Amino acid sequence: MFIIDAHTHIYPDKIAQKASAAIGEFYGVAMKHDGTVGSLLNSGKHSGVNMHVVHSVATNPAQVGSINNFIARTVAEYPDKFIGFATLHPDMEDVGREVERVIDLGLKGVKLHPDFQKFYIDEPACDVMYRAIEGKLPLLFHTGDSRRDYSSPRRVPAVLEKFGRLNIICAHFGGYTEWDNAIRSLAGRRVWVDTSSSLAFIGKEKALKFMEFFGEDRVLFGSDYPMWDAGDEIEMINDMGLNNDQLEKIYYKNICGLLGLHIGNVNDHV
What we know:
The chain is about 45% helix and about 10% strand. It has about 270 residues and is of the alpha/beta class. It has a single domain, classed as Metal-dependent hydrolases (TIM Barrel). α7 (about 155-160) links the parallel β5 (about 140) and β6.
């Protein structure tokens, strides 16, 4: 089975361990990996993941350009392994120019983390950022954290209604630690969700129900590397009793359709 991991984080080697440790401290979990490119490649080799969507998040506007350059360089070095998502920041200047630049660099989407970047998903100050992305790149939001309100899934519908051509992926089955809130707020709406940082918490039966709520054409496989191990996440999905068509959609067909990717004969990659 061809597998694309739609949710991974990478960092330059010199800061990867520190960055990963900071994320682990923020969420109170022990990280499975160190966040380096080499570790992700090694993890993919052992878990059977063929390609990874890679990204990082700018916690201040000054970081945006250098992070996007790092992601683009990494993708260029490993074009058969990585698909790059850019970062933006709501306080940055000339967001439209950066969006055009990252498109020219070949990046395929944008990742935002409201809790780290300290903005509310639906605050009006973000409209210029969403307008610059709309119709050009899909947007992956970290959504959900019961300890704070920045990324609450209940804030997503206002953005969907205002920006009808914005393709939004709500990570963590729509809302990390707010899964029931995600169903109330997002089920039936035009959003995609990924499976990252969810399966071990919600269990198999609830995950299957969530697939029904969101629709099997809208679910993407994600590991949330370096927090978790892709092999463990794949094992949980394979234990859900899904048929081959459903697995193909989750593992690669849905993300390929969303990003407009043409992998060719996937059998050549397996």
